[in-house]
Amino acid sequence: MRQYRLLSPMIKVVIVLFPLLFSTAQAGLVIGGTRFAYPENQSSISVELKNTSDRDMLVKVAVSPDDARHLTGTVESLPSFSGTVFIATPPLFVLKPDKNTKIRINRVGGGLPADRESLFILNVAALPTLENSHSVKTDNQLQIAVRNRMKIFYRPSNLSEDPNMSYQKLRWARKNEIVTVYNPGPRYVTLYNLHVDGKVIDGGMVAPFSHRQQSWCKSQGVCEIAWQFIIMLYLHGK
């Protein structure tokens, strides 16, 4: 555990580091990761999917620009992208029970910034078949599509610093109840498992070269902020 007292004597920031490699599984569909790196010098990356259920699954995949759902409070505006930047293939397919496959993400356009990461969302929706595909559908039969959202970080080749050290660049300041966190670096930083004075808060992320402001603290007294930085094994399968 490391403790930092940054920019203000009235705010105490505690950071816990630990390695973690995420995968996600919902309703029988296992996706080989929750975040993926797309290096500029690669023509494509792949993402592995597995159907662990006993039914066929209709799977739909698409890549969309970041919609800033992970950013709350007062946030600087993010770069916008026109046109299609990434495509996922195949976009629609059936995945048989106990089978796995790979989808491929290709960059097809977009003038992305060369001095920072750009964030995109991989959307995966899976619709399992009915238990008896030959039965007549009745009003009390319901099919629910399971939707997953994974992060894709586009990384320009000239970003040489270790992404797992990006948390060290964050700077914190406080004025009354308002906390401002500054990210002067070129990479996104996730405030995972954030606690403010012992209370769990949805921390989200801090975008490159930007800052966020949140009404996290009480107006008086020392405010303690604790969060975890995940030393991620970012996936960029070939």
Automatic annotation (TrEMBL):
Q: Which GO terms describe its biological process?
A: cell wall organization
Q: Where in the cell is it found?
A: Periplasm
**Short name of one Pfam family:** PapD_N
Listed A to Z, the keywords are: Chaperone, Periplasm, Signal
Q: Which InterPro entries match?
A: Ig-like_fold, PapD-like_sf, Periplasmic_pilus_chap, Pili_assmbl_chap_C_dom_sf, Pili_assmbl_chaperone_bac, Pili_assmbl_chaperone_N
What region holds the Pili assembly chaperone N-terminal domain? Answer: 28-159
Q: Which GO terms describe its cellular component?
A: outer membrane-bounded periplasmic space
> Which PANTHER family does UniProt cross-reference here?
FIMBRIAL CHAPARONE, PILUS ASSEMBLY CHAPERONE
UniProt record similarity statement: Belongs to the periplasmic pilus chaperone family.
This chain belongs to the protein called Fimbrial chaperone
Q: What is the lineage of its organism?
A: Bacteria, Pseudomonadati, Pseudomonadota, Gammaproteobacteria, Enterobacterales
